[in-house]
Amino acid sequence: MSYLAIEGLSKHYGNRNILSNVSLSIGHGEFLSLLGPSGCGKTTLLRIIAGFESPDTGRLLLDGREITPVSAAQRGMGMVFQAYSLFPNMTALDNVRFGLRIRKLAAKEQLSRARDMLALVGLADHMQKYPSQLSGGQQQRVALARALAIRPALLLLDEPLSALDAKVRVQLRDEIRNIQREAGVATIFVTHDQEEALSISDRVAVMHDGSVAQIGSPAEIYGTPRDIFVARFIGISTEFDGVVTESNTVRVGGVTLPASQADGLPKGAGVRVLIRPENVHLNHAGSGSGPALAGHVISETFFGATTQIRIELAEGGSLIATLPTIEAAKFPPATPICAIWAPEAPHLFLKDGRQATSVT
Amino acid sequence: MKFGRKIFLGLVGLYFAIPLVATGVFSLWQGSNRYGFDGYTALFNQDELWTSLALSFELAVETVLASLVILVPAIFWMHLRLPRLKAVFDVISALPFVIPPIVLVAGMSALYTGPEWLVSTPHYLVIPYVVMTLPYTYRTLDVGLGALDIRTLSEAAQSLGAGWGTLVFRVVLPNLTTALVGAALLTVAIAMGEFTFANILLFKTFAVFIAFIGQSYPTEAAALTLLSFLITWAAMMGVLLGGRERAEIGGTR
Ligand SMILES: Nc1ncnc2c1ncn2[C@@H]1O[C@H](COP(=O)(O)OP(=O)(O)OP(=O)(O)O)[C@@H](O)[C@H]1O
Ligand SMILES: [Mg+2]
Q1: pLDDT tens, position by position, A234-246
Q2: What is the DSSP string of A48-65?
Q3: Are A276 and A237 in contact (CB under 8 A)?
């Protein structure tokens, strides 16, 4: 049962379409991330949900009730902004109380709830400080407490971590996730950082040019990208031009390699083959059996547990493979190698960008 | 280097102090080599001093109110919704610098022919005063509002349920006190000392009174000059101290 339903939302500014026919739904207590490159319309979509902008067409249903015409002040959505948004003239405590004052709660109730919220975000010791006396991370925590204090219908977060440094960012995103779980509030989290989206979301909606390219669990988004945009945007991969030869093989360069997604495609069809580096297996040249891409190691990048190996292929082009560091030690630079992959590893896309299997 | 700087500061200090001290001494002069407060007593016994001072102060306060009522919403709206018009506002606000007062008065008299209660009374001066102080009030308020991320703050307040009233009185104005006080005191200082408009339009304000005294009673004029200097100075100190107090409670960022 969907809690918030977004139906056929479109929005344009001037003669540019910013959102075209976006439909999405989010369940009770769900954590949904909107992920996409800069300018794809994430903020615009979030602002429409918050009520700061109105859509040209389409509607929003919250718990079955239409909220499209309801003003931002009446929607009761908690919002955390990318820019620091605390009221500079109020202490952390008064900032958190602000929404409760407007709701005319009894003073005692206001105070106790505001204190609880600040304790929840780990700022019990900083209640009387003014925003200018708090660090960026602390300010965003207060903003989160302020948004949660009104027991929002929906929590909307627009890149709340992007102004923070890397370490605080990772720590705070996990905290946000835990607090969100505890509060059980449905949440939409906007980000253009894929690691952020994949690591904390129940589901991720990948946006591209004003529409939702794919929506699914982080594993689905990463493992079975539905079109070439999603495949390229999430993670890294090496791309080749290929031609379907048999029902489950493609020819890349002069080599015929297994690809189960070729199943059902006409023989001779041109496809784009994408392979993720962790799915590439390396052997020393001549040691493997069967068809493989020949080449030699040109460089290695050490990432601690894993090492990324860049390979120059004999027929031209290059290939990236990621191996456990212990494994990678067997392939120092200049080593001649041959590379293979499992039949289900490569993603095949038609010339129009669609995933090969979604055609059948 | 340090020594040179001290000499320079000393010279600047003298440049400012000598005329003041000389004026002060002269204001105490009672002919030949007698000194005393006769100039001051004579001055304070002039009814016109008090009426003109009161009139100027009243006009200054009215100018402050009119300026703030017009400008605060306008600049607030500009920052919130029409940031692209900022360049236009900037130019308009600088116009009083390039339009001579005499032109302004002529244009104004043609434009405002009524109502009677306004045009025939000194309150008419509030109109040119608002225009004349525009560069200062606009700048001060613009900087004050620019330091706040007005758009994000209003959206944050709205998402928490605030209406326009709450937004303006709980969020915008409290964060603008420095700018408001600054704009008000600058306006008071300028309106209190304004001579041209009042003189042309034949209203006896404080500055007009100073000029009148200056032509007739030299020592009283010197005493009065010091007095008006003190008023301006108090207003300026108010701006500075107000700004510092805000900085100390750490209100802005
Ligand atoms: N008020 C507006 N008027 C005109 N164009 C706008 C307006 N707001 C946004 N846009 C345009 O709409 C497009 C989408 O903007 P949006 O802020 O939604 O992108 P985003 O996905 O949030 O990007 P980012 O990751 O950079 O925040 C951008 O090209 C932007 O220039
Ligand atoms: Mg954005």
Answers
A1: 988 898 888 888 7
A2: HHHTSS--SEEEEEETTE
A3: yes
**3 state SS for A86-155:** CCCCCCHHHHHHHHHHHCCCCHHHHHHHHHHHHHHCCCHHHCCCCHHHCCHHHHHHHHHHHHHHCCCCEE
- Would the pLDDT of B249 be above 60? no
Instruction: Give the one of B160, B166, B175 whose C-beta lies nearest to A89's C-beta.
Output: B175
Q: Assess whether B144 and B230 both reside in one domain.
A: yes
Q: Is residue B41 part of a domain?
A: no
B158/A81 CB distance under 8 A: no
Q: DSSP 3-state helix, strand, coil percentages of chain A (rounded to 5)?
A: 30, 35, 35
B29 lies in the same domain as B123: no
Q: Best mutation site among B81, B150, B154, B159 for testing chain A: the one with the most A CBs within 10 Å?
A: B159
Domain span at residue B7? 1-36
In this structure, the answer to whether residues B28 and B60 fall within a common structural domain is: no
Question: What's the pLDDT score for residue B253?
Answer: 38
Q: Is A89 on the interface with B (CB under 8 A)?
A: yes
Nearest beta carbon to residue B159 from set A50, A131, A133: A50
Q: pTM of the prediction?
A: 0.80
Give the Cα-Cα-Cα angle A88, A89, A90 (nearest 5 degrees).
95
Q: According to the model, what pLDDT value does residue A310 have?
A: 93
Closest-CA distance of chain B to residue A89, Å:
5
ipTM of predicted assembly, 2 dp: 0.81
Residue B44 pLDDT exceeds 90: no
Greatest distance between any 2 Cα atoms in chain B = 76
Tens digit of each residue's pLDDT (9 = 90 or more) over B64-120: 999 999 998 898 888 888 888 888 988 988 888 888 878 888 887 777 776 777 777
Q: What pLDDT score does B245 carry?
A: 62
